[in-house]
């Protein structure tokens, strides 16, 4: 067996123990990977039947395109990152070689024939967007506003907006996107910032962290993004709602994985990938098995492609030389996606240098793909010795000065004349808002807000109320919001609209009026309370999110109605309700405690009571903590399901609060309740939150006499607390809130060797899923007694998986210790390429082959 050149590195990092090299470094490849002309490259494409691909632009007109965007007149703006990996060690990256160019088709033949450099001498430019007062450009780590004052398509001024925009100097981990949402904010991937132009100034606001490279939104404005290892995520709720309650950490709604499908189907070998040395990354033909460089998801909202492509999400995979198509479906407010054609990609190439990195919809309704066309796609900071050796040996350092833009259209397609919207009248732009084409609606909204023409108000209100396209009607409302011309009477009238999206948009836009006007607030409460019991799930979701602007009695009445419906079974609904209960969780808990419907047990109610208790503890108000203990410590009442759930919430919340202990007159009776002995964690929580005469000081989780010590550190306790909430949202539906399993769903976790054994093996199960039969504590479980397959949870990030595993290994009397984020991350890397669930036999064999003492 040949020892590769990177053997010392693997030995030093510990990776070698997880990698078995059984082949030499000269596998058979499809070809020698020659550098092709655009015409030659076009011949390498395999495209979905019925479609054709056309060259729009190529070098020298464009080089190293990483972002493409069409302006109001159909000109194609291109961000050219020409300094990216121009050498194998990125030694010239800091040189000002990047630019933003504007491409034009002057003779209307479908190909760009003129390029104007709008902005030159840029250091690693990475994003651009059209703004109401210029063009936003991200480069050299900062965000700039540029302006062309004389109309020659060349920037005359460049003003700093935010010097800290990127957040990192590394291209793979720096902010990007500048995606204008329906709400007139500009959102970013790999970032916690969003930006908006208001009253002539730019403001920056914090928002949830999203994705890695590229953003898009669907017709309802839901943001879509991804990570290099997980191809498609989305926000199921509008930004910044679920993070409104500091006492609650949501586990759903934001960064929702739409699909666990990771498999890709290249049509050529892909040896030049960063982890190609890890068994399972490449198949026997050296083709990449799963996503490793997923980027730039685009929700297709155009009209040129056939109807079945509408609202599909396309994802670039430059490492596999392909683009995947996902079909998205909705179950109420929850989205899911599936591969449109398993076994065959939407677009793939036999050219190793085909590097799709960005996509856009054009004003003609067709799909455009930016092809960076180069050998090296991995940045030097993360290039393994294996990949460097591959790159040099196969001459993939060249070319560095190419780039192509491709257009995908139906066969025999003819472009219709496109109107130059920059010259359109206000009435024409309002008509464009009613277009079936998403690009036209977005551009019309942008231009109307940029013109700041108050005279558009009447026509926009008419469109919002009577338009034929519900998405255009909603965008008319957001246009009015950008112009600060919305009227509460119109918005109130739309709360009973026939289309749920128009209802939820009106509800969101009513919030600022309700916050400042008691009359509007009262009318809004009346309307919502009248319809809450029959409203569809997506409308109820927005009601839960918006309840925070109502007076507390009305808000709590509305939220009680929502949580008393079966909708509470959805984790997203529970998170939404809690987001509107900031600092009033205790009052709402007491309301439910007395409600007739909340006297009988139900798994969803149990979870919600626990979440309420956790939030009360995290708030840390002494009077509420005293009252909470009184509710639990009542010998006159049986210790039922509500008390058990509330005690669990107290225990979880105690590890995430630093509140001063509440002074009691004597020790809580809970500590010595014979029928319900406390666990070590519960005892520790009480000693952490309360103080009493003669108390023996103990940290959370410290064992009392006769109890087994909990092995978790303070940081691990926080991970445990997070894991509990994520378990309730993600796992309890099959394994039960108490880990005892559920008939016809899943086996128990309590005292399971699969849970208490090797942490890496457990991580593998969560990452890739598992199919039966499976032996747990001496009993064999198999379908139909349980579901045939436990699904993969690979869309969860490493910290989320580590939290869940830490929780189940240390709950229910377990004491198996924590699972670290690093272990999960390393396990994810070394098992890359696994695209089917484990069987017991496969998993045990894998563990034995990779250095475990036994399969278990």
Automatic annotation (TrEMBL):
**Cytochrome c domain residues:** 718-812
Alphabetically ordered keywords of this record? Heme, Iron, Metal-binding, Signal
User: Which Pfam families does the UniProt record give?
Assistant: Cytochrom_C (PF00034), DUF7133 (PF23500)
| Signal peptide, first to last residue | 1-28
A GO molecular function annotation here is: metal ion binding
The UniProt entry, under InterPro entries, shows: 6-blade_b-propeller_TolB-like, ARM-like, ARM-type_fold, Cyt_c-like_dom, Cyt_c-like_dom_sf, DUF7133, Quinoprot_gluc/sorb_DH_b-prop
Q: Which Gene3D superfamilies match?
A: Cytochrome c-like domain, Leucine-rich Repeat Variant, TolB, C-terminal domain
Identification of the protein by name = Dehydrogenase
Q: What species is given as this protein's source?
A: Rudanella paleaurantiibacter
